[in-house]
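Q: How would the structure tokens look for this protein?
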Amino acid sequence: MNIGPLNVRSERGQLRLEAAVSSASGSRVCFFETPEEFGGLVDETASDAFLLAFLMPAMVAGEDLHIGGKASELLLCNLNETVIPILNCFNPLYRKIRVDAAEPVARTLPGGRGVATGFSGGVDSFACLYEHFGRPVFPSRKLTHLFFFNVGAHGMARTEKELAAVEQVFRARYEEKKAIAAELGLPLIPVNSNVHSFYPVGHLESCSLVTPAAALLFEKGIGTYYLASGGHNFADKARQLGVNRESVNLADLDPLVLPYLSTESLRVWSTENRFRRSDKTALIADYPPARRHLQVCNKIEIGNCSVCEKCCRTISTLEILGKAAAFAGVFDFDRYHREAEKEFLGRVFAMAAHKEYYADLVNMAKARGIDLRKRTTRAAIFRARFYGTDLHKSLRSLPGLRPAIRALKRLAGR
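A: Here is the predicted structure in token form.
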């Protein structure tokens, strides 16, 4: 796989960096763009963002990766000597390859530059914001910038039509998050890209590489980038790595891999790995910006639906903490209790032995003397255990059965 030299240009008020990507599957152009007002932070000579962004597609394709421009010597060495062997060890889908560049460089830039993190408005994001901005921290570690990336979190596109639809969602969400950042007194830098259209896997499997890749565009002005951990602490990650091995979630490797994604001029760190998701929720429960703006839902563009899996998990945690009333402006608790609580807690009790998030909820409630079992039913727990089994799949395939079940549900008032 070859990444051509960078082409840098200004277009419609945007600074656009693009490069031709050639592989066995064909050739296309990949781009990253950000408003020109933030162009002073961008290193227009470095291809490090493209190098890191295309590591996973190259490994999945089993193709060596060549950069036709300048790339960090440190990043090249770290990828070849450490990151690629680690990824291959835990998942043979990521095949061993070599990466190189036409112009390896060992550049260093002055210290005292910006400190940044991505900002989505979710629990992990607000926890990182609180830890590195909302409470007293060392000045050199305090956040100075926030990023909002379109690299997969708003949808994975393939066609031009899909790319336009994903960008529309990205733009709408950015406008909302921009107002929150302004309230905090921090700039929110948007980065639009089509890089997700090159990925053969979903965003959850790729975010630990493609997100730092987008941050590497800003090596000239940003010296530290924090990637918020995904809600599992060190113990949970270690347990999952030991149990899952080849089916490991790439984010579980963050504490091990992310420091090796740094260059001479921008350090990448995984943060808040000592916390579980419930710990993070407790951390931000009294943080005023989170109370006003927390958004965990991926079902709707802006706000929270209050009945999806992520909303239910957050609402139940807030109720266990006794902090629900403070978040009445961002969640519809009545809808949660009416439409989702019974079935959600049924899943919690049915699968707590296999899902860390669910076990965390049960243990947290038990420690506070709260009996979540009273808020669900045996039938809901049975349904959660039954759904997805081979018997359930077989019954679903029987002609006429599904309409009959829907009719029975209507008669039962469900």
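The longest helix spans residues 160-184.

The longest strand covers residues 14-23.

Upvote if useful.
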